[in-house]
Amino acid sequence: MTELWDLLDADCRPTGEQVIRPGSADDGVHRFFQVGDFHQVVVGALFRGDQMLIQRRVDDKEVWPGLWDLTAGGSVVTGESSRLAMRRELNEEVGVDIDFGAYRPAMTVAHDRGFTDYFLADAPQSLSLADLRLQASEVQDARWASLDEIIELHAAGRFINYRPGFLEFIFALAGGNNVYGEVRHTERL
Fold it and tell me: Which pTM was predicted?
């Protein structure tokens, strides 16, 4: 199957060109994503109080196999907004459906392959671990974890390579305030 990504410029604007995701089938029309190209990624973190829902990647993932990670994430495909992609990824990976249509990313981070929008949200009150539907090809386990537990997993080499300060920042944002300390980041627009 061919998965297409919208190519972005250095200011995160679509160039109008679509590229093929590495590992996808060649459609004979589009070129493959390559070094120097930029695309959009989304990552979401669901919180319940002072705990985040984390997931453990399957052991045969190409990148960070078997490591714990934030709740869900992946690439934005051609024609999607980051909000729609976040809803799709969260639903695909852990079986939770949250409409992100009225949310903005808590932050956008530029990196060598593009831009990542980070969405932070409160988990539905009724959500239990038994309710999760883990995507067998992506996720092998999920659990609630505090920042201290995630930092311990990170120190033991069992969490993907986010910097500890970045993980602390995500928890600080989820604690009810944006970086200015004024407005809850998950408020609806």
Answer: 0.89
